[in-house]
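Re: [help] complex structure
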Amino acid sequence: MTTNGIIQIALYMAVLLALVKPLGAYMARVYQGQPIRLDRVLGPLERLIYRGCRVKPEQEMDWKVYTLSMLAFSILGIVSLYALLRVQGMLPLNPQGMGAVPPDLAFNTAVSFTTNTNWQNYSGETTLSHLTQMVGMTVHNFVSAATGMAILVAFIRGLVRHNARAIGNFWVDLTRSVLYILLPLSLILAMVLVTQGVVQTLGPYKSVALLQPTKDANGQMVTQQVLAMGPVASQVAIKHVGTNGGGFFNANAAHPFENPTPLTDLLLILAETLIPAALTYTFGKMVGDTRQGWTILAAMMVVLAIFALATYAAESAGNPRLVALGVDQAGSNINPGGNMEGKEVRFGVARSSLFAVGTTATSTGAVDSMHDSYTPLGGLSILILMQFSETILGGVGSGLYGMLIFVIVAVFLAGLMVGRTPEYLGKKIEAYEMKMASLIVLLMPLIVLGLTAVAVVTKAGVSSIANPGAHGFSEILYAYTSQGNNNGSAFAGLNGNTTFYNVTGALAMLVGRFWLAIPALAIAGSLAAKKTVPAGPGTLPTNTPLFAGLLVAVVVIVGALTFFPALALGPIVEHLMMGSM
Amino acid sequence: MNYRVQDILRPALGVLIAMTILTGLVYPLAVTGLAQVLFPRQANGSVITRNGTAVGSTLIGQPFDDPRYFWSRPSATSPFPYNAGASSGSNLGPTNPALAEAVKTRIQALCQADPDNHDPVPVDLVTTSASGLDPDISAAAALFQVHRVARARDLPKQQVRDLVARFTEPRQFGILGEPRVNVLALNMALDTFATTPR
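Output below.
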């Protein structure tokens, strides 16, 4: 670890925290329907969309209609994206002549992008046409993010309202999220990315001459290099702003055309954590006590900082097996040092570790370095961040409503300890809420561990493994952890493009997304219907450092108890083996 | 509130179509238009042209194994290194014997091309990058190769070292990322340098 590396991590955290309040307050205005400056430009467009789609913005929905609307929209998204992937060969804007995507891969990809997972069993530059990247991938990057934000806002309304049935209008929440938040942020970010070298063109790939010709695997001379290009900046911007993570290229944010400079790297990490962090302030604002939001953010940021330093330490330590070969892995001002397999020189180990932590803490899943080549402890750290149910910042919207479920569990546990009915923000937490919360907390591990177990005992599962030994098990565990939590990053050595992994992965993604969303909306509906009770002397204050500590403890204990045995078989045993050769 | 099926399906379809037009066509086309007008060089791949032909991109690395050139990092793309049409990392795990084996082979190749160099090899020079297209090597990896390049080109070592120093890009704004050397730019400069009469 170098001083500069720690400064880079600290700088990122400082900039992020400085942006939380302004963006959080702005988003609160957007969701509460208060006047904002962009109204003048986008207001007419918003009203046009409502008129054209027969949406009555003033008509609010109960939780069931809200849920059905969300599901109908998501299913339509899966079907239409699947169709687009199958027929892209017949459509325009396809300069490289990409053909139809095979059915199982198209299904996995359609589910992946509509659930905000963006797991990729395909390689972008050899599979998708420009049109598919635009009207398929980019569109679902926007709307799957907006769907998560809408669900969160409905959840918050459930906490705020009393004796009410309605929790908002899904179409309004979705449209306003896109128009006033995601679109402006993406437009600005995309243009900044272009200035740094991210490509943005509708033209074909470009051939350039190699300075020194080389030979391919068959001994044939290669004198030209083909540069894959496309409408990249517009997609990369929303892929981070919306915590999606699906790369335009196979190498994702490690590709120099997606992430050309250390500055773009910082901006991409900021972009993917910005909305999840700022939504905690929006939450505080909407419930009328911003300290409630800061408390949750504090819990998240403490965990994030610890894991960022832990991952950085593990990667800086390098690979002991290379020391014996005479490789210099000591970090200095002229040598990035550390474990550089699968990392880019312009980022080095510090930026790469921070990126890996940011992308797994949020449910983004974009990578600027290859996680499969991380040291066992570095890989362990990012696996655990996903196994905290994507609550440390998490996905846009989904991260915070996931964390609020853990808040309910924490309040319930505290209530048990002192023998009082638990309550949160004036709402009594009763059997129904706890049943729903338990469903959410328990089902993700069940699907992740269950599918991992199936994969390791079947030939179809094991034959995709790329690395031998404990690391191979980690590849499978990582794949289902990532998909079951809608993250999308991978230990990419595992060949996921088989019927077995395409189908089981899609199942994990569907459960990870909707099994969280539906019970969360049910809790919202139930809470909205309750009356608000004033805080009494026995009420547990939920806006204190003590509560932040309790919340961290609940998230860590639930995650650790559930996943420790599996982690012991993968990264932990690999770490123990790495020292002894 | 009495909802019928079409009361949900119609807005679902309508909003999906509206969003497809807005975020799938209007937004990327607007970014493309702005980028092509304001930053055409970057938007089209930061391509370097010499005498009218495209000879590379400042952002995409190229493979080198001639002792007269500085070598780039190893690349895991197939079927040939630095295939910019199919980016990829090696995805080799840290304890995979294939990784140590590959590193050993690369160290041997470096030693063979420069037998009297007994310095420890900088890690980035013998490990593959994440994209397989990394345009950079570390300053340490460039300095490691100065002796070989100077000898192969019959140039004074100091002159080559000065060239490396000139092409070493510091951290962005002095803080971000790592100091690095763009291999293609350095090698192109070497070529012009060698042909310029002294």
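Chain A touches chain B through 141 residues (CB under 8 Å).
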